[in-house]
Design brief:
With about 300 residues, the chain is an alpha+beta fold. It has 2 domains: about 140 residues, MutM-like, N-terminal (N-terminal domain of MutM-like DNA repair proteins, Alpha-Beta Barrel), CATH 3.20.190.10; about 140 residues, Orthogonal Bundle (Helicase, Ruva Protein, domain 3). It has 9 helices and 10 strands. A 4-stranded antiparallel β-sheet has the order 1-6-7-5, with helices on one face. The protein has a 4-stranded antiparallel β-sheet with strand order 2-3-4-8. It has a two-stranded antiparallel ribbon with strand order 9-10. α1 runs parallel beside α6 and α5 packs across α6. The protein is elongated, with a radius of gyration of 21 Å. It starts with a helix and ends with a helix.
Length: about 300
């Protein structure tokens, strides 16, 4: 799933290519991906792209009328979820898009096509059978509940050690769960939470209220440094290269059985029903091997 660094880079990529151009066509292929009906997708046509920005893991393509009135914006908001992606083309297809109601294709299926006045454009596609790509056309991003309820952006000035400490004291939970909670901290998912905790040398199951002030400060530094480094590594790359760049930059996530780049110990995994986490026992848990959650349930 694309997380803050890749979404930031993708938003910048689209902004540099789409800003200032008018939308010539916007066609829905996957009806289930479109979550709103007013304004219709057709309301984007003829409007100018004022810019592309990010809210957590959401990408926001902002369109305005020719006079640039900010009180008459229409936003194309989309969340790529696990299997979604934006595929740019310098010459977007002009063939008609046929809407479909569903489908179980595992390959990358077209969900939405946007074509600009210069002939370029992008497709929103989604791979896999579990279709979670979400597309909204709204007048204000705050109309989308998942955007309105986002927590603090970890790369903003508002994200201070005190802010993190307050979030960690709100309720006692596993720290990995807090990092992945979009209503607490916006933009971090399964992969970067593994990376952050490895940098902070912290167990993913450590309870948030057990952190000392120094440990909170170290976690804050790890969050900011990990995300900033990943943003810098992704910035300027073509959209088609961002997924591979993310994989190459991972220290422990997705590297089960490989050597930890810090201590050389083997990277281990804890599996859940629909996801897994990776960690280094030497760096993060004092050598303790964490129990596999699926096996723990089976043994009860």
């Amino acid at each position: 799933m694309p997380e803050l660094p890749e979404v930031q880079a993708l938003a910048e990529f689209l902004d540099t290519r789409a800003a200032g151009h008018a939308v010539a066509a916007a066609d829905v292929a996957a009806i289930a991906a479109l979550k709103t009906f007013d304004p219709p997708v057709s309301a984007l046509v003829g409007r100018t792209v004022a810019g592309v920005t990010r809210h957590g893991k959401w990408i926001d393509l902002v369109t305005v009328t020719d006079d640039g009135r900010t009180d008459d914006e229409v936003h194309l908001l989309f969340h790529l979820s696990r299997g979604g992606w934006a595929r740019w083309s310098d010459q977007a297809p002009t063939t008609p898009v046929r809407p479909r109601m569903g489908g179980s294709s595992r390959g990358a299926a077209l969900a939405l096509r946007v074509r600009l006045d210069d002939g370029a454009g992008f497709d929103l596609t989604e791979a896999g059978t579990r279709k979670r790509l979400a597309v909204h056309v709204v007048r204000d991003p705050q109309e989308v509940e998942q955007v309105a309820t986002l927590g603090v952006d970890p790369l903003s000035d508002d994200f201070t050690p005190d802010t993190l400490a307050a979030l960690m004291r709100t309720r006692n939970q596993q720290v990995k769960g807090l990092l992945r909670d979009q209503r607490a901290i916006a933009g971090i998912g399964n992969a970067y939470s593994d990376e952050i905790l490895h940098v902070a040398r912290t167990s993913p199951f450590k309870l948030t209220r057990s952190f000392t002030d120094d440990e909170v400060a170290a976690l804050h530094d790890a969050i900011v440094a990990t995300l900033r480094d990943a943003v810098a590594a992704s910035s300027g790359k073509p959209a088609k290269e961002l997924k591979d760049a993310k994989r190459r930059g991972m220290r422990v996530h997705g590297r089960t059985g490989e050597a930890c780049p810090v201590c050389g110990d083997v990277v281990r995994e804890v599996s859940f029903a629909d996801r897994s986490l990776q960690y280094c026992a030497t760096c993060q848990t004092g050598g303790q091997v964490l129990a596999d959650r699926r096996m723990s349930r089976l043994l009860k």
